[in-house]
Amino acid sequence: MESFVDYLISRLYILPAVIIGLSFHEWGHAFAAYKMGDPTARNLGRLTLNPLKHIDPIGFLMMLVFGFGWAKPVPVNPHNYRNYRIGEIVVSLAGVTMNLILAVISAIILAAYYKYAGVEFIASTAGTRLNVIIYYFIMLNLCLLVFNLIPIYPLDGFHVAEVLLAKPLGPKVFLFLRNYGQYILIGILLLGRSGFSPVGYIAGKLYSVVTSFAFWVFGV
Question: What average pLDDT does this structure show over 95-103?
């Protein structure tokens, strides 16, 4: 019973990261699309940081319970972009760019916390909980960054790869990924649940990089 209660508490710790990480990710897509010439997302009310506009209830619960999920995809019309190729790349990378920014800001907050909070508070129950919340904030945003850069349909990395590599690789490769990408992603997610997560591994390495840099800046 205690382990189940601990699990529920851990889900509460990750809640701010899920809400903010997903909302900023989708807002990034909407903002970039608008700047590239496509007003579709803005006209549909998605150019906002309001989580209620971006959170998909099922995807949100999946993220909290199982560690993977999704938000409502931002609708865009690439044909409205002033430059199709540049627009596709910029809009596709805008979401993960927001996650990277959030991760770096969180790492800076963590470094400042260790620098100025004081040993007694850091060792206290409240301090430990705050530390866990910041940790989840950094890791979840880095996981969103890594996962969405996988060049598998319908992830952001696929659209970037399609623009850059469609000619040298040929259309059949990307047609295959469009048809079977979802099954490949399920395999990647199942691999993560089996004990080894490529996404988690890479995100962990990035965690070390961003936190080490932040700690170096603050001299911690």
Answer: 97
- What tokens does 192 get? 């993560």
Q: Which backbone phi and psi does 219 adopt, to 5 degrees?
A: 65, 35
Cα 214 to Cα 216: distance, rounded to the nearest angstrom: 5
Kindly name the residue from 26, 88, 120, 162 that is annotated as catalytic: 26
Residues 140-155 have pLDDT tens digits of 999 999 999 999 998 9
φ, ψ of residue 55 to 5 degrees: the values are -75, 125
Residues 6+ apart with CB under 8 A from 69: 18, 56, 58, 59, 60, 61, 62, 63
Q: Degrees (nearest 5) of the Cα angle 76, 81, 86?
A: 105
Active site residue 26: yes
